[in-house]
Design goal:
The chain has one domain: 2-Layer Sandwich (Beta Polymerase, domain 2). About 30% of the residues lie in helices and about 25% in strands. A hairpin with a 6-residue loop joins strand 5 and strand 6. The N and C termini lie far apart (about 45 Å). The N terminus is likely disordered.
């Protein structure tokens, strides 16, 4: 019997998955955004940016934006993020869009929206400029070992 617990196709480019009803604390949300950024880094995502938009947008608390240089890489970054968030946070995106095309994949985790772009799409939509007044969150790919 097929396992429909993780994703059910709604339309050619849209997937909906298990929804979490409880919001994370601000610190947990920030840590989740950092986990997402590191997962993108694991698949060689470029120009990874975390924007804190909670005070200027009702859409989400954070945007995580990354670039992939081929449709295959964009999808691999998306899969890496989903796998890492599922493994470390036991969470699934509420919605995933654009996976079949692979030019711009959007993952909605409720308080965090992930955008994975091909370079042309990232330049065209220029979310960093649109949300230019958002706080940029610094992250290192992995915490330093002490």
């Amino acid at each position: 019997m097929p396992d429909y617990t993780h994703s059910t196709p709604l339309a050619p480019s849209t997937v909906s998955t298990a929804v979490q009803t409880e919001r994370s604390s601000p610190d947990q949300t920030r840590e989740l955004a950092l986990t997402i950024a590191r997962a993108a880094e694991d698949r060689k995502g470029a120009e990874i940016t975390i924007l804190r938009v909670e005070e200027i947008s009702y859409l989400a608390d954070y945007f995580v934006i990354a670039t992939g240089f081929s449709n295959v890489q964009v999808r691999a970054i998306s899969r890496s993020i989903q796998d890492k968030v599922e493994e470390e946070w036991q969470r699934y995106p509420i919605r995933v869009e654009g996976l079949s095309e692979g030019n711009w994949v959007l993952q909605d985790y409720g308080e965090i929206i992930v955008h994975i772009f091909m370079p042309q799409e990232r330049e065209f939509y220029n979310l960093e400029a649109f949300w230019g007044h958002a706080e940029r969150i610094d992250f290192s790919p992995y915490p330093s070992m002490k």
